[in-house]
Amino acid sequence: MRDNNFALDGLLGRDLHGKTIGVVGTGRIGALVAKCMAAGFGCRVLAHDRYEDAELKAVGVGYVDVDTLVASSDVITLHCPLTPETRHIIDAAAIERAKPGVILINTSRGALIDAEAVIAGLKSGKIGAVGLDVYEQEADLFFEDLSNEIIQDDVFQRLLTFPNVLVTGHQAFFTEEALTAIAETTMANLAEEEAGRASPNRVVAEGVRGKTS
User: Fold this and answer.
1) How far apart are CA 70 and CA 176, in angstroms?
2) Which residues contact 69 (CB under 8 A, 6 or more apart)?
3) What is the Cα–Cα distance from 89 to 83, expressed in whole angstroms?
4) Pairing status of strand 44-48 against strand 102-106
5) 154 SS3 class
6) Phi and psi for 104 in degrees, rounded to 5?
7) Catalytic residue numbers?
């Protein structure tokens, strides 16, 4: 708009209505996403979590295994913690099973996806678009001004070359309200654990669990 370029070339989008959305991890954030997609956009929503949410099932969300979710979804969005079981849950094998043109969203933990496998999927056209707020090696990149630096991470640099990839610097949490909630939740969790009680956000290592500590 600022360049007075009002052409529509390359801007053709896709409606969410009627699409299948796969939500991996249905803790608080994942559950809200699932509800929004189902009620707000009229999507078919599939979910995977070690614990099934009765409220989500009541509004039509179907719980399935990861393989079924990946193979059936037009959009896959990740909202689970990083555990040994979820590390690279989206890898080359998962991408091979996915629908052609699948959209992949990760705002949870960088290592949930195998970035090199995602690059291969983008190059082949199997992946239609990617949105990332996290990256597996982000500790060496995010939260710093590297505009005058040579970034040595070739995988990250390759991701940035694709026109259908959007990367943000782990900033989805960065609001006044969210930072306050994080601090309050952390203190409450510590108080519960110190008192010998299991905090409601304790992560269980086995399987996929949406709530994180």
Assistant:
1) 34
2) 22, 24, 46, 47, 48, 76
3) 10
4) unpaired
5) helix
6) -115, 125
7) 109, 138, 170
Instruction: Write out the DSSP string of 122-191.
Output: HHHTSEEEEEES--TTGGGTTTS--TTS----HHHHHHHT-TTEEE--S-TT-SHHHHHHHHHHHHHHHH
Which residue has 């409606």 as its token pair?
15
- Could you tell me where the DSSP H helices lie in 99-152? 115-124
**pLDDT of 142-151, one tens digit each?**
998 999 999 9
pTM for the whole structure: 0.86
Element (H, E) at 193: helix 176-194
What is the torsional sign of CA 104, 108, 112, 113? positive
CA angle 59/60/62 to nearest 5° reads 130
CA distance 62 to 69: 10
pLDDT per position as a tens digit, 151-169? 999 999 999 999 999 999 9
Radius of gyration of the chain (CA): 18
